[in-house]
Design a protein that fits this description.
By secondary structure, this protein is of the alpha/beta class. It is about 30% helix and about 25% strand. Strands 2-10-9-8-7-6-5-4-3 form a 9-stranded parallel β-sheet. Helix 1 crosses helix 3. The longest helix is centred in the middle third of the chain and has 16 residues.
């Protein structure tokens, strides 16, 4: 029996989440963002599962990711590369039938002089990260149309704060840009943007983290866990009153406690910042962590948990009980970082 942590990727749940998000915006295309190896869960297998579910449009960050995904999902699907092309890459985009997202003037020059390939135009409406200046939609509209873009897009900065006025401000700026390219599909919403209402759907939505069980959907939207992360109990023992647990002796026991040490740590993706805050679930019961999380190990307090736990028991750190965003919040981060931080020792299984 292996003690290695195990991540069971629930591809059927991921497909169901895609269908749920697709139903929020009837008439719009619902894409899937599978960059960073599908947020750490395996882009090839996740991409194939989504393709079978009916998804025909994908987004990745890098050319190399796009080439790998093309091999997994085959011809027919459209794959957008968000970071756009560098010099010398244009032919690779064409050969793999990838759509380059153009977001700066270098991109525009490369594409204007290259053999025709598929492109999208990314405009900055307030994020100040990537994107063409909005005024180019007016001053260079003829030249931009000549590139024959298949999509115009922008990105919301505060979509996870539904009442933030910047959402409406960005939407209005983007509506002006979309009007200039009235015959080209438009896209603004990523996962959290999908939950802001129909005015944010435009022609195409781009959910990512919500596919994998993250984000904070409204009460009437059910998002299922995309992965179950489990570790093995390797030691069960009594910690005596007055003794400490873990590095730095940061947690001193105020009474005798039944403790369990599990084979998973920050090398596997449980951030050290979650020390004393993360929980593990055994047979559906939450057991708090005590002491510092170390590279390979975390210690749980079993005193209020199920009886008779022995070495070899499995502990859930992500899944139906251990909600992704709640576990991430306990570590002072969010679901994106927790998923993409799953280490190479974590065995990925697919179900």
């Amino acid at each position: 029996m292996s003690f290695l942590p195990r991540a069971t990727v629930l591809t059927s749940n991921i497909a169901d989440n895609w269908r749920t998000l697709d139903a929020l915006h009837p008439g719009a295309t619902t894409a899937a963002v599978v960059k960073a190896d599908a947020y750490g869960l395996g882009a090839a297998k996740v991409g194939r599962a989504l393709r079978i579910a009916g998804c025909s449009t994908f987004f990745v960050a890098y050319l190399e990711e796009g080439i790998t995904l093309r091999k997994a999902v085959g011809k027919g699907a459209r794959i957008f590369v968000l970071n756009g092309p560098m010099r010398g890459e244009v032919a690779a985009y064409r050969d793999a039938e990838l759509t380059a997202v153009l977001s700066n003037e270098l991109h525009l020059r490369l594409w204007a002089t290259a053999p025709k390939g598929s492109c999208a135009l990314h405009f900055d409406t307030g994020m100040n990260r990537l994107g063409l200046a909005p005024e180019l939609a007016d001053t260079e509209s003829t030249a931009l149309r000549r590139l024959q873009p298949v999509l115009v897009m922008s990105h919301l900065a505060c979509a996870d704060e539904p009442k933030n006025p910047m959402n409406l401000e960005q939407r209005r700026k983007f509506e002006e840009i979309a009007d200039v390219f009235a015959d080209t599909p438009a896209s603004l919403a990523s996962s959290a943007g999908c939950f802001l209402g129909k005015g944010y759907g435009f022609d195409l939505t781009r959910p990512g983290i919500a596919l994998y069980g993250g984000s904070v959907p409204p009460a009437n939207v059910e998002i299922k866990p995309g992965v179950v992360l489990e570790a093995t109990v390797i030691s069960v023992f009594t910690g005596r009153k007055g003794t400490s647990v873990g590095y730095g002796a940061t947690h001193v026991l105020d009474e005798d406690r039944l403790l369990a040490t599990c084979a998973i740590g920050y090398a596997d993706g449980l951030p050290r910042a979650g020390s004393g805050k993360l929980k593990g679930w055994i047979d559906g019961t939450a057991c708090p962590s005590v002491g510092r999380i170390s590279m390979d190990l975390i210690t749980l307090d079993l005193s209020g948990g199920p009886k008779g736990i022995k070495p070899g028991a499995r502990v859930e750190f992500l899944g139906e009980h251990a909600k992704l965003e709640a576990q991430a919040a306990a570590c002072g981060t969010f679901g994106y970082e927790l998923l993409t931080g799953l280490g190479p020792r974590v065995q990925r299984n697919y179900r």
